[in-house]
Amino acid sequence: MNRRPNPETAAIAVTEPPLPTLAPPAAPARTSAQHMSFLAHARYVITDNPVTGIAFGMFLVIAFCAIFGPWIAPHDPLASNTGSALQAPSLRHWFGTDQLGRDILSRVIVATRLDLAIAVFSVALVFVLGGLSGVAAGFFGGWTDRIVGRVADTIMAFPLFVLAMGIVAALGNTVTNIVIATAIINFPLYVRVARAEANVRREAGFVQAARLSGNGEYRILLTQILPNVMPIMVVQMSLTMGYAILNAAGLSFIGLGVRPPTPEWGIMVAEGAAFIVSGEWWIAFFPGLALMLAVFCFNLLGDGLRDIVDPQRRT
Amino acid sequence: MTSAPILLDVQNLTVEFMTRRGVVRAVQQVNVSVAKGETVGIVGESGSGKSVTSYAVMRILDRAGRIAEGAITFSGIDVRDAPESEMRDLRGREISMIFQNPRAALNPIRKVGHQIEDVLIEHVQASPSDAREKAIEALRRVRIARPEERYHAYPFELSGGMCQRVVIALALACQPQLLIADEPTTGLDVTTQKAVMDLVVELTRERGMSTILITHDLGLAAAYCDKVVVMEKGKVVEAAPSRDIFKSPQHAYTRKLMRSTPRIGVDLRDLLPEDMPPPAAQVASIDAATDKAPLLVVSNLVKEYPRQGVSGMMAQFFRRKNELPQSDVFRAVDGISFEIRKGESVGLVGESGCGKSTTSMMVMRLLDPTGGMITFDGDDIGAIPAKEFAKLPKRKRIQMVFQDPTDSLNPRFTAVRAIADPIMRLSDIRGRAAVRARCEELAGQVGLPEDLLDRFSHQLSGGQKARVGIARAVALNPELVILDEPTAALDVSVQAVVLNLLQDLKASLGMSYLFVSHDLNVVRLLCDRVIVMRAGKIVEEGLTEEVMSDPKTGYTRELLAAIPHPPL
Amino acid sequence: MLRQIGKRFATAIPSVIGVIIVTFLLTRVLPGDTAAYFAGPAATPQAIEEIRKTLGLDRPLPEQFVRYVKDLGRGDFGKSLTTGQPVITDIAQRLPASAELTLLGLIISILIAVPLGILAAVKQGSLIDHACRVVATAGVSLPVFFTGLILVYVFYFILGWSPAPLGRLDIYYSTPPHVTGFYLIDSLIAGDPGTFRAALSQLILPAVTLAIFSLAPITRMTRASMLAVLSSDFVRTARASGLSPRRVIVTYAFRNAMLPVVTTLGMVFSFLLGANVLVEKVFAWPGIGSYAIEALIASDFAPIQGFVLTMAILYVLLNLMIDMLYGVIDPRVRLEG
Questions:
Q1: pLDDT at position B45
Q2: Residue range(s) defining the domain that contains residue C206
Q3: C15 vs C25: CA distance, rounded Å
Q4: What ipTM does this complex have?
Q5: What is the chain B residue with the closest CA to A201?
Q6: In a domain, C90, yes or no
Q7: N or C: which terminus of chain A carries fewer CB neighbours within 10 A?
Q8: Is C88 inside a domain boundary?
Q9: A277–C157: do the CB atoms touch at under 8 Å?
C-alpha cells in the first residue's frame, strides 16, 4: 500500500502533469521568464485564469459574512415565528422561512462564521502538527519516519469520514471535537505531502552544501527545507479547507457536533431534508448552496494558488 | 557521396511554438539534405533546435508546435502536407527514430518482444503467426544474447544499454531507409556508448541506410558522420563534411564549439574561446605538487548498504525453501586506498555505480564509512560522525562543488546568500558589510558580475549558477575541494570556461582537488593523477599522462577506446 | 501466485492491528466512564456495573485489550441497546444494502469517469476537456447529502419519476429470497422482473448521488495521468514507430494511465464509504450507515464501535484488492522482492 504514489492527495489535489515534452527551447522566452517576479506571475495566473479571480472575489464575500454576519443579517436568525412558518422565498424573506418561521437568509449568513471557524481551526491545527511531523519524517528518516508513517497509515486504514464519526461519538458531541476529528482525518494528507517534499530535498545539492557550510541538521531543517516546503503546504491548506468544511457539515448533518437551534449549514440542510419530499425545497437548498459555493471557492483558490506556486508552471 | 540520390531534403524549415509569451521560432530557415546511405550529424548545444528539426521531419511535433514555413521532402513525398495516414505509414517503416533515455522510450508494462511485434504488425511486415519469430530475429540482429528469453523481458529487467538495443531493434524492425538518432548515447556509460554507436553504424551501413545523428557532442558527430550540420539558436550556422569542419571551421560558433570540445592532445587553455585571453599567471603546479606531504590519506575504505527489497522477517517467511539466502549487504565501496598531496589534483574516474560518488561523499564527511580510515592532515576524520563534523572548525578545510548547479542552490535564496552561508557559519568575518564585501571579492574571483549577486537561482544561467557554487566552495579558503562532475550539466562551451576557472583558482588559492567524473577526457585536462574505479575497487592508478598513453588494465583501455576520436 | 497473494495479505496485517488498537482506544482511554457509554443514557447504576463486569472494565488496560481482541475473534461486537440484538447480527443483516448501493454507485461512476477523462486528455483543450474540468472541480465541491436532496426534489417531487426515498423496496413488493443479499441479483435469481424493477428504481437515485460524488476524483485522475502518459517518451516512441492512434491510446497509453487511477480508487473508496452514511440518511436506506446514525442518536455505543470497525476492516480488504489489481496490471510490482 505504501509504494503507490501518494494516493491520498490524488483525489483532492491531482497535480497537473508537466507541459508536453517538446517545450520550445528558444532563448528569448526563457530570459523573459527568468525576470518575471513572483507578483507578476501571480497577476499572470489570475488574468490568464479569470476563474481564480472570481474565486478570490467569492472568498472576500465569504470572509465578510463570517466577520460581519450578525450585523448584516436582516432578521434575528434565532427568532421563530410560527405565523410565518414555511414561507417560500419572497421580497421579505429572500430565502424563505423554515418550519419555525425563522428567516433562512439570516441563518445562512450568520452560519458562515461557525462553518468557517471549524474549518480554519482544524486546518491550522493539522497544518502545524501534520506539516511539522511530515517534514521531520521526510528529512530525518529512520525512526521518526517510521513512527509518523505508522500513525498516518493507521488513520488512513479507516474510511476518513467514518473515523471522524467514531472520534466525535467517543470524545463527545461538541464543536471542539469536530475540529479535532477533522484535523485528525486530515493528518495523513499533510504528512504525506510534507514528507515527500522534505524527502526529495533531503539529499539535494543545496542541503549538502549547507552541511558543508557548517549548518547543523535542525538549522538546515529550519532555514533550507521549511522555506521550500511552505508554499506547497499553503496550497495544501487551501485545498483541504473545502474538504474540512464539507466534513464538518457532514457530521452535523447526521446530528454530531452543532446542535439546533444554532445556525450551521449542515444542520440546516438536515432540518430541511424532511420538507423536500413535500416540496418546501428552500429550507435545505439555500444552506446547501452556501455550503457548496464556499467549498467550490476554496477548491478554486487552491488550484489557482498551486498554479502560482508550482515551479513546473512557473518558467 | 554527392552523387548519391537525395533521400531527405529539408528546405527553409521554420517551426513555431505557441507559448504563453507568444509565438516562439524554435527553428528558422533550416536547410538539411541527406543522401542515400549518408550519415549526417546535427550538432548544437541545448536549445539550438536540433531535436525540433528532427521531430518536424517525422511530423511528431506536439500540439503547440507547427511547421510555419519551408518544405520537407522524403523520397518524393511532401512531408509537410501529406495526410496523417500516409505519415503513419512512413513512420517506423521508412523513417525510424531512436531516443535518448532508452528505458523511458519503452512501454514499462509491455514485454519488449510484444512492442516489436506491434510495429511489425502495424506495418504489415509480419502476420500474427510469424510476428514472434520475426521479433526474436530483430532482437538477435542487434546482438542481444538469448533473444528468445529477452523477448519476454520487461524494460525494467534490462540494463540501459540493453534497452537501447531493444529501441534500435524496434527502429530497424521494418528496414527503414532513414534512421534518426536523437542523442542515442546520452545517459549511457561511456563503454556502453561506444558499443551502441558502433552497432548503429554497423547496422545502418549493412543496410545502406541513411542516418541523422543528433548530438551535442561535436567529437561524436565528427567521428561517426560523413557530414556535420552545426546549429545555433534555431539556425544552421555551418554545414560541411566532417573532415573539413574539424580542419577549417568557417563560422565563429563552430570554431568556439570545436575549440571547447575536450580532445586528445589539447591543453586546458586551448579550450577557451579565441577572444578570451589566457590568464596571466601560468603556474606549473604539476612539478610543485609531487613531492609535497600527503593532505588526505584514505586507507581500506569500505561502504556497505543493506540490499534493497527482500529483507526482514516477512521475507524470510515467504522465501521459497530451496532459495539460497542472499548476502544482505552490498559493498558500494570495497576497500580502497589512495592519497592526495598538497596542491595536487587527483581524478577519480569510473562509470555509474562504480562507487566514486560514494567515496567522495565519505571523504567529504557527508556519509559515514562502514570501515577504513580517512586521514586529513594527520587527523582521522573518518571516525567523526558526519552529523558532528558539520560543526567542527575542520569542516571549512574540505569543501565541494556539486554536480548539478541548479540543484545545489536553494531556490529561495539569492546568490549572495548562498555564498555568504559558509562565511557566516564558519569564518571569523562578522557584520553585514564585511560579509557582503567578502562575497563581492569572491564573485570577482570566479568571474561573476556583482549585479548578479542579488538574483535568485532561477534568474541565473547554468554557467552563472556554476560560478556561484564554486564561489561558495572556495569562500572559506579550503585546502581540499571535491569536484563532483562539476561540468556534467553544462554545455561544452561553458564547461571549457568553468574548467579553466577551476584551474586558475587552484593555482591562486593553493588548493587540492579530487575531481570525480565519468569522463577521462575531461579529467585529463585538470588532473595530475587519475584513479580508475570499477565495482567499488580501484583498478588502476597513476600519473594522468601515463594512464592515458599506456593504460595497464583492460578496463582502462576500454574506457579510453570509448572516447570518440574525430578525424584530424 | 499463491505466494504473491500471501505476501499482499501480510502487508495488510499492520493496518488491521492499527484499526483494532484505535477502535479499542476510542472507547477506553477517553474521558468519561466507558461503562456508562456502553450502558446507554437511560441505564441504572446496576446496569452500568453489570456492563463494567461483562466488558472487564475493572481490569487493567492490557487485559481489557486481550479480552477485546478475543471477543472480536469470536465475532462478539457487543449488543445493541436499541435493537436488542448482537451488533454483529445487525451489521450482517444490513451490510448487503450498503454494499449494493456503494458498488452500483462506483460502477456508474467508473463507467462515466474513465471514458470522460480519457477523452478530455486525448482532445486536450476541446469542449469535452472543459466540461471535464467543470465536472471535476464542481464535483468535489458538492456536499453529497445536498446532491441527494436535489435529486429527490427533482425526480420525486417535480417529475415524479422515482419512488419516495424510503428504503430499498416499495412496501407493495416482497423481499426476494435471500441469496446474496443484493436485491437486484436476488430478484433476478428468483426470476422476478417486477421486483427487480422496483428495487432498481429505489436504488438508482442514491446510487447516482454516490456516483456524482465519486465522479470528480476519478475523472480528474484519469485525465491527469492520461495526459502525463501521452506526453511520455514511450508514447512518443510508439508514435514515431507509426502505430495507429487507436493502438497508441489503447495498448500504450491507457494501461499505463490506469495505474494511478487504480491507486486513486483506494481514496475514492474511503470517500464513498463515508458518503454512504450521508446518502443512507437522505434516502432512509436500511444499511449500516443508517444503523450507525440511529445508534448515535440513541447514544448506543456498541453499534457505533462495531460500525467503525466493520467499515475499517472492509476498507482494508478493499485496499488489498486494489493492490492485487495493481499487481495484475504492473509487472514491476508483481516481480518485486
A1: 82
A2: 95-336
A3: 15
A4: 0.87
A5: B407
A6: no
A7: C
A8: no
A9: yes
Give the pLDDT of residue A186. Answer: 92
Give a yes or no: residue A308 inside a domain.
yes
Distance CA B188, CA B190 (A): 6
State how many domains chain C has.
2
Do C161 and C308 lie in one domain? The reply is yes
CB A229 within 8 A of CB A135: yes
Q: Is residue C209 part of a domain?
A: yes
Picking from B24, B61, B411, the nearest residue to A29 by CB comes out as B24
- pLDDT beyond 70 at B308: no
> At B302, which amino acid appears?
V
Its domain, for residue A250, covers: 41-75+95-313
Residue whose entry in the numeric block shows the C-alpha cell 542515400: B36
Residues C163 and C26 occupy one common structural domain: no
Residues C124 and C214 in one domain: yes
pLDDT value at position B42? 93
Q: Do C11 and A1 touch (CB under 8 A)?
A: yes
Count of domains observed in chain A: 1
Q: How far is CA A142 from CA A187, A199, A202, B291, B332, in A?
A: 20, 12, 13, 45, 21
In a domain, A145, yes or no: yes
Q: Does residue C85 sit at the B interface (CB-CB below 8 Å)?
A: no
Q: What does the angle CA B157 – CA B158 – CA B162 come to, to the nearest 5 degrees? A: 170
In terms of domains, do C216 and C331 share one? yes
For testing the chain A interface, which of C219, C259, C267 should be mutated: the one with the most A CBs within 10 Å? C267
Interface A-B, measured as beta-carbon pairs within 8 A, has a size of 118
Examine residue C80 and state whether it is found in any structural domain, yes or no: no
pLDDT recorded at residue A41: 66
**A186 falls within a domain:** yes
Pairing verdict, β B294-306 and B329-341: antiparallel
B208: left (phi over 0), alpha (psi -120 to 50) or beta: left
Edge-to-edge strand ranges of the sheet holding B371-376? B329-341, B294-306, B371-376, B379-380
Structure confidence at residue C39 as a pLDDT band (50, 70, 90) = confident
CB proximity under 8 Å: C 3-32 to B = 3, 6-7, 10
Phi and psi based region of residue B12 (left: phi greater than 0; alpha: psi -120 to 50; beta: remaining): left
Say if the Cβ atoms of C241 and B99 lie within 8 Å: no
* C31 and C111 assigned to the same domain: no
Indicate the pTM of the whole model.
Answer: 0.81
Same domain, C169 and C311: yes
Q: Does C330 touch chain B (CB under 8 A)?
A: yes
Q: Which helix (H) or strand (E) holds B220?
A: helix B218-224
| CB distance B403 to A197 below 8 Å | no
Residue C237 and residue C325 in one domain:
yes
The verdict on residue A15 lying in a domain is: no
What CATH number does the domain containing A258 carry?
1.10.3720.10
